[in-house]
Structure prediction request, 386 residues.
Amino acid sequence: MSDLAIPVGGQAHTHASHHPKHLQHHFHNSAQQFEASKIGMWLFLVTEILLFSGLFLAYFILQTRHPQAFIEAHHHLDRSLGVLNTIVLLVSSFTMVMAVQSSALNRIKPALVYLYATFILGGVFMCVKYIEYSHKIHDGLLLGNLFSYKGASVPGEYLFFSMYFVMTGIHGIHILVGMGVIAYLIWRTHQGMYSSAYYTPIDLTGLYWHLVDMIWIFLFPLLYLVS
Amino acid sequence: MSVDNEAMETIPHHGEEVHTHNHTKWYVANILTLFVLTAITVLAAGVNFGSNTVNLMIAMAIATVKASLVALIFMHLLWERGMNAIIFLSSLFFVALFMSFTFFDLETRAKIEPSTPSEPGVSAGYQPAPLPIYVVPPKGSPEPTGGDPAKAAEGSPAH
Prediction:
């Protein structure tokens, strides 16, 4: 019994003295822990893709069955605001990836600047969405049986707005969650928690943010550019 | 301790080395390409390529290229070992399965159930019931002010 206890105690000692604080005891080294975390994040992203694929499928079914309604209804969306939001999200993806790289290269101050920029761009996206939503709510261009727009000329326009609000709504919630996580990262970076030795949370948040951007890349032509 | 060292050697340090590379040029090139592709998407939407479906497929093809660029460069799949890419691509496989089988069902319903025949000139086999202009009339307007009243009546909830 004592033969077993000594090596175990010895190993625990080396963990405490040689291993960095962030490294959990069941990983061999930081690289392995980082790779394992990333696989976990990718698995989570897969569930996100499947969540949105149901919505995309619903869109495709309704759109192929009521093409005129979708063409007519999408004219109520402001295409220039859609382009603006696309560019805002693409730039935010760029600032996010620069935040990841800066922290990986141990450039913490630029990393902070890029995190702030990403947060602000997410905020700009939500402000534009707020402008679009309030305009549609004012006109009664709403989802399902809340649709009360008086100038509708083609039957079934409410189907488009059902898809519009559900898809952009769930996407918008993802942006808000991402902004919350980025705010947390900013707070922790200010505390000096991250360095090139440990920046896994920044990297994983980056992956999430890029996926949300990727979903918008598909939403934009589907909702704003129906032809 | 020697066991611990041996174990550490079997874990490749490849990943960590890759992440310390400076990819700024790649990122800048990528964001500029994505801007150009966004412009192409908007321009392509203004061109009639024959039908609604063809236009939709072209828009989706450009969006797929854009999403691939985001995945490969911003999400680092280009520089990583394959596991993350396999996970990602497997999800796309299941999405393709999900969507294609749903459409197989919808497109072949008319052949199996002749009671819902497809109208000539409409590609979709399954034809839904006509739709009302809106589900609930807005307050203060008992009669729909827009659209064809006959169509609206035809698709009323009484249907």
In short: Chain B touches chain A through 78 residues (CB under 8 Å). Chain B has a mean pLDDT of 73. The CA atoms of residues 121 and 127 of chain B lie 12 Å apart.
